[in-house]
Amino acid sequence: MKNKCRGCAPAHPVKKTAHPVKAVFTKQAKDMFKNPIALLPFIIFPVVALIMTELVAKGNDDIDNNLFVAMMASIFAGFGLLQSAAAIISEDMEKKSLRYLVMAGVKPHQYLLGIGGFLFAAATIVSAIFGFIGGYSGMELLKFLTIMLTGVAAAIVFGLSIGMLSKNQQAAAAMSMPAAVIIGFTPMIAGFNETVEKFAGVLYTQQISIIVNDFSANITKPLMVIAANIVVFAVLFVVAYKKKGLTS
Predict the structure, then answer these.
(1) How far apart are CA 244 and CA 248, in angstroms?
(2) Could you tell me the pTM of the whole model?
């Protein structure tokens, strides 16, 4: 039957669908404060860095003022952020919301950009706070933010990959914990062991540690190593998404 009133508005007007990336970004912004596991690292690591810097480092001539900033920044990127990303995506899978996103036509790269984009934005704020605590300025601040945010991107993609491969949040925690411990704390051990240092060279957290502990170091190689990490993790994520996304 033809519509007799072509100029009339429909009885139930349909809202224009938001871009998939924007929709996923907005969804995660609303969900973040409901998931304390994912939120905690964004708070605890800069707080610890601030407390240890003000109460320990600045009162001890034998300790570099930025020691704890460098330490907590590397652990945040390698340990805390990785676990947060894994917890977020595993929660989507456990609650079946990922299935609805796939059915709605959300592509792997769109979901990655939406969730990852929100985490990256939040981590950028945390990185800036680390820079403020460390008192960085000029080229030091630029180098710090460049290496930190590149490492943050690697951590997010790797965490999302782990979460995608997990059946639920508990499984994601079990899988991400050992990976986070290795990636987050290896740079600390590498400073005391040459064998570990050679292995750590392929990790993005080690590259963050190199620059943050020595701003005179060339940043080109560390950025290339981190970029290689991102490529490997991104491929892993897309494969996992295509394999499990429709059945999650």
Answers:
(1) 6
(2) 0.81
